Amino acid sequence: MTLTNIIANISSLNDKDKEYILDYLTRHFSPSSSQQGALIGELRERKFSHGFHCRHCGSTSVVRYGKRDGRQRYKCKDCHKLSSDLTNSPMYRSKKADKWIPFIECMLNGLSLRETASQIGITHVTAFYWRHKVLSALTKESIGIFEGLVEVDETYFLESHKGRRVIPNRKPRKRGGSASKRGISNEQVCVLVARDRNKTTLSKRVGSGRILMEQIDNTLTSHFKNDTVLISDAHNSYKSYTSTNDVEHIIINGSKKEYVKKGIYHLNNINSYHSRLKKWISRFNGVSTKYLQLYLVWFQFLDNRKMESDLSKKKQMLILASVHGTWETADKLRLRDYAF
């Protein structure tokens, strides 16, 4: 087959297949060093969009201070510490910088730690710490303000102490086990999800057992405008919240076979989001409750950008994680009680 035939065949493909071929060629035939250079260049522009500042103390008295391993260094005149474009990013002091782009691809595909480790040539322990460094930084991304109609509902995950050798107050469960009590109890972890019609989404682990009015207040109020309309089920906590905060409230009572009001008030978007979240998170065969918030942020990043190309998502994940930054070390990640 000649080059002309190959080009003609590519031209006849649909947009999705063309994006796949472009992504494949970029990953397998573009030098990784040039990809890193382009990413670091864009990262520098995003990180210092308001002018140079020290990543350690925030001072603007920063000067260039030579290069190391081909990367520009900076020195702060106030705290006298050195930094680079990667300081405070997940890639900071990484000895395998060439592995980060393939690693982000594995995260976008939702691969397990061992699958990731095998595919890019690192240990599963390193993959664990890299994953949690990226997710810890992504938790700092701003959610924004909800506008117009906001669907709010909670979903539940079985409490998990996956990875712990000693579990307090109960015997260990086998994988796929169930709670000892029927219905909603303190063995169920409550995740509150809010989503408006512009797809602005907030998902947060708020506690155990039934949702409380105080948890709704602490989670949502700072993201609401005065004219926001909250749509929820008939749970009393939502009624108490809306009456206390003078928020317009539309109740969808599913127990009375009520699913839509006036053609526009419904919970279809939030229920669909719950379904996608549960299906996606099931691939990990259980997520420890202490890390659940990180996985909620991970899924939210993917779901909000599902219409974008893999190249765009790969670049955004790495740049956002680096811009928001994290000082989390391996020991901090391993020993903390709960992730945010």
Automatic annotation (TrEMBL):
<dbReference type="InterPro" id="IPR024445">
    <property type="entry name" value="Tnp_ISXO2-like"/>
</dbReference>
<dbReference type="InterPro" id="IPR051354">
    <property type="entry name" value="Transposase_27_IS1"/>
</dbReference>
<feature type="domain" description="ISXO2-like transposase">
    <location>
        <begin position="145"/>
        <end position="304"/>
    </location>
</feature>
<protein>
    <recommendedName>
        <fullName>ISXO2-like transposase domain-containing protein</fullName>
    </recommendedName>
</protein>
<dbReference type="Pfam" id="PF12762">
    <property type="entry name" value="DDE_Tnp_IS1595"/>
</dbReference>
